[in-house]
Amino acid sequence: MNILITGGLGFIGGHFLTRIKDNNSYDKIIVFDKMTYASNYKRLKNIFEKKNFLLVKGDIASKSDVRQVFHAHKPNIVINFAAESHVDNSINKPDLFLDVNTKGTLNLLIEAKKLWVNKKNVLKEFYKKSIFYQISTDEVFGSLSKRNSFDEKSPYSPNSPYSASKAGADHFVRAFHKTYNLPTIITYCSNNFGPYQNVEKLIPKIISCIKQNKDIPIYSDGSNIRDWIYVEDHCKAISLILEKGKPGKEYCIGGSNEMSNLEICKLILEIIDTLIPCKNNNKYMDKIKFVKDRKGHDFRYSLKTSKIFYDHKIFQNSSFKENLKFTVAHFLNLKLKTL
Ligand SMILES: NC(=O)c1ccc[n+]([C@@H]2O[C@H](COP(=O)([O-])OP(=O)(O)OC[C@H]3O[C@@H](n4cnc5c(N)ncnc54)[C@H](O)[C@@H]3O)[C@@H](O)[C@H]2O)c1
């Protein structure tokens, strides 16, 4: 079994690689990554000393790069983490997001279909257990008011160029299952947090501002609500779906930790204050500065986590506050003895 992991040098992909580094069920683990500003090779370079791990620098938006990696390594499983992932960047460069997130996914689907499915749309014997696993986001469903939650059957209603490009990718994934019988799975996950996230994202940005003694920019009045999940819980859920998920299905992975941006910011500042108390009667809270709202800013995301994850007790031992404290300590370069 060979597994192709696109975007494996990014935040979530990197945690997934760390999770499977000692798993010997794959003959080859091919990490295919363009190594953009969002990748972190240094953090993961030891993994590539293992003989079954291989790094291929390439672009999912390039048909020839994708063709070559499929031709050379004939993967049985594909997990597509690769994406331009920052909503703010998508507002300035929507075409990049279309090229990478939507067309890049289509390039991967085309090569997987060529390799796995015969002319009668039947899976070839060697690829009977193959899965094309698309890592999607709750943002494809759009925005919620204070009530209700999204589930796998919710209609798509993306509001940002990022979520539109991810929605477009998901539609192609679904279409390849329906049209060519490609064994696909899509999971929708809520906002991830954890060590090694890029500083452009909310939680590392708050901590980085404190480290640099800068103001913390919070959109509008900070009332927008996100559902936060620890990145390792997301990765556990991905492993479970790889093992137990059904081709052609979609699953929701929520964190059950809904907080407004202002609430999570205050919580982080309280944690920092316990680790490095603010000096000279100053308050970290004074660093919060409300700034002009993001265009098309979704008010609230909320997911009903699929039953399969509760059945397998995926989130059982994970404490949001402990994980957040560990994450804050990581970005402050502190080691917490208790964790
Ligand atoms: N971070 C979240 O909160 C979150 C939540 C739900 C879903 N997701 C999805 O999870 C996936 C991973 O997110 P992340 O936060 O780890 O992203 P990230 O930005 O940290 O990492 C993306 C990785 O993809 C690589 N990449 C970018 N463009 C590429 C291209 N054209 N070809 C090959 N590789 C390319 C980058 O080099 C990087 O290593 C994305 O698909 C994202 O949409 C993220």
Architecture overview:
The chain has 339 residues and is of the alpha/beta class. It has a single domain (2-193, 229-256, 296-318), classed as 3-Layer(aba) Sandwich (Rossmann fold), CATH 3.40.50. The protein contains 11 helices and 12 strands. The chain has helices at residues 11-20, 41-44, 63-73, 87-92, 94-116, 161-180, 202-211, 231-244, 261-275, 307-311, 320-331; strands at 2-6, 28-33, 53-57, 77-80, 131-137, 184-189, 191-193, 216-219, 225-230, 249-253, 258-260, 288-291. The strands form 3 sheets. The protein has a 7-stranded parallel sheet, with helices on both faces. A 3-stranded mixed sheet has the order 7-9-11. Strands 8-12 form a two-stranded parallel ribbon. Strand 5 (131-137), helix 6 and strand 6 form a beta-alpha-beta unit. Helix 5 packs parallel to helix 6 (161-180) and helix 7 (202-211) crosses helix 9 (261-275). The longest helix has 23 residues, at 94-116. It is globular and about 70 Å long. Bound molecules: nicotinamide-adenine-dinucleotide. Nicotinamide-adenine-dinucleotide binds at residues 6-7, 9-13, 33-36, 38-39, 59-61, 81-85, 100, 104, 135, 137, 166, 189, 191-192, 198.
